[in-house]
Amino acid sequence: MIILLPPSETKREGGDATGLDLARLRFSSLTATRRGLLRELRAISRDEDASLKALKISPRQRAEVLRNREVMTSPTMPAIDRYTGVVFDALDSASLPERARSFAASHLVIQSALLGPIGAMDPIPAYRLSHDSKLPGVHLAKTWAPVAPLEIGAGDDLVLDFRSEAYVALSPLPSGANSWFLKVVTESDDGTVRALNHFNKKSKGLLTRTLLMHARDLATIDEVLAVARAAGHRMELGDPGELRLYVSKD
Question: Is pTM, for the whole model, over 0.85?
Fold first, then answer.
């Protein structure tokens, strides 16, 4: 089983006093692609104005440009601890017991715009690059779509795709993959079901935490549903290849 999460634009500061080592990242076949994107990111970071435009950030966020300039030498920490934001705040990696973190190391993958899919415990630096960033001469979707899905969805593993639609578009899984896309929805009193935006990130983080705390490899979607429901999540099958997680807006 693979749980596939989107990254977050916000990152925690600090880490170990070691630089990025691409050889320590999961999915080694992506090393050359990662190296090329890192080279382009560092190159544009020498031009602050061009970086602000490429990253679609304001002058008040100049610190992000410095992060990118030092991306190869700045401290690293496990990806699951590096990312912040709603999904990862709900996941609350710091409070996970060692058994759950060990399970995450082999079963949780995060889809980075810069590094592609990475393992939860892969040591990474703080950086800024989003799915819609515009590096000169680089089209992120065309860069990742041909290579990343070969690593994530090529085998027989059950893939629980908790990514946002933007990151699904960046690297869509191959047709025929044993994957299930999670849609977070709410149901009104008249039975109308509609997708949620504001609440979906927290719900995905909490569901991910449930699966990590369970810390057992699940082979079928029925097993996933059983674990989720036992933990109090209301989750059902939706359209083909889709899971629906029902949440209240209260």
Answer: yes
